[in-house]
Amino acid sequence: MIEIIVPTINTNDVDAVLRQWVKKAGDRVAAGELIAVLETTKASYELESPAAGILEALGEEGQSYAFGAAIGAIHSDEASLLAARAARQAAPAAASGGPVITAAAQRLIDKLGLTPQQVAAIRKRVIKESDVQALAEPSAGGGAQLSAQQQTIARTVGRSHATIPDAFLLQKIDVTAALTSLIAYRERHKAMVGLPDLLVWSVAQLTGSFPMFFGQLDDSLAMRTSTAGNIGVTMDVGRGLYVPVLREASSLTLLQASAQLSSFRMKALRNTFEAADLAGGDLSISLNTDEGTVLVKPIILPPQTCMLSVGAVLKELVLAGTTPIERSYVLLGVTYDHRAINGFQAGAFARAIKSLLEAPEVLER
Amino acid sequence: MSDVTERIRSEMAAVFGVAAADIPADAAPGRIEKWNSLGHMQLIVALEEAFKIRFGDDDLIRLVSLPEITATVTRKLGGQP
Question: Are A262 and A255 a contacting pair, CB within 8 Å?
Answer without folding.
Answer: no
